[in-house]
Amino acid sequence: MRLFLAVARERSLSGAGKLLRLDPATLGRRVARLEKALEVVLFVKSPQGYALTEAGAQLLERAAAVEQAMRLASAGVAGPSDRMSGQIRIGAPDGAANFLLPQVCAALGRDHPDVDIQIVALPRVFNLSRREADMAIGVSAPSAGRLIVQKVSDYHLHLAASADYLAAHGTPRSVADLRASRIVGYIPDMIFDRELDYLADLGLSRVALASNSVSVQLQMVARGGGIGVVHDFVLPFAPGVQRILTREVSLKRSFYLIRHADDQSNRRLSRFADLFGAAIRAELARLEAKA
């Protein structure tokens, strides 16, 4: 599984071989042996590298879960000499940075007082190759670069509006009714990830109130500016905002924890990443249950 994960993440035998300190030819034989043992093709080989088949993608998710479980087990039996310390900088889109990470990092800080945690909130993709952060939260899994990518959790979004707006304009009965509503959303040409282009999927082209910030959009919705797509985990912070058309529109997206491949052997960062991911999952579940 360790060899499979390296090839899947590096998308090449040479890249994975450098990480594992194995000859590419030897690694290729080991991968072929794994495919033969499982009786399934895991990779499509081409001049561009090794691309996962559908079966390979399914195995990747399970292998990553096994890897994470092993790291958590190691962290659980770590002795006093493994006490975490130092600075860890995390990049995140502003929705997660404002409404999810503060309480997650506060709890981790209490449990690990020698760690200095920094959150950098920016509405764009972080460049880990330039070491802008030690790790980053993303809303899609990057397909390029030497990166370690772990899916953290799914999260959910729904259309929402303030009670004042709905009292003044009425509650839409269908998606078609939204065309007569004032819509709050992203500035169209500043959407940095396709996964954030919610309104296009609903056939809504006009955005009456727009911002590149999730926090600003939420304030626009809460102040009666219109109807917007709101994260379920954000709703507990906006008690005057309520979900609408929940049967017609229910969106699901995912958070990914992204690290540079060179940090794979960094035990401190790997241990923190495991604790961080588990804390995010727990906090997401708590907040979404209150939505």
UniProtKB/TrEMBL annotation:
Domain HTH lysR-type: 1-53
PROSITE patterns: HTH_LYSR
Pfam family, one: HTH_1
Statement: the UniProt record of this protein carries the keyword Cell cycle: no
One GO process term, biological-process aspect: DNA-templated transcription
InterPro entries given in the database record: LysR-type_TF_proteobact-type, LysR_HTH_N, LysR_subst-bd, WH-like_DNA-bd_sf, WH_DNA-bd_sf
GO molecular function: DNA-binding transcription factor activity; sequence-specific DNA binding
Keyword Glycosyltransferase tagged: no
Keywords from the named record: DNA-binding, Transcription, Transcription regulation
Gene3D superfamilies: 3.40.190.290, Winged helix-like DNA-binding domain superfamily/Winged helix DNA-binding domain
Sequence similarity: Belongs to the LysR transcriptional regulatory family.
UniProt-listed PANTHER family: HTH-TYPE TRANSCRIPTIONAL REGULATOR (PTHR30537), TRANSCRIPTIONAL REGULATORY PROTEIN (PTHR30537:SF3)
Protein name as annotated: LysR family transcriptional regulator
Organism: Sulfitobacter alexandrii
Upper classification of the organism: Bacteria, Pseudomonadati, Pseudomonadota, Alphaproteobacteria, Rhodobacterales
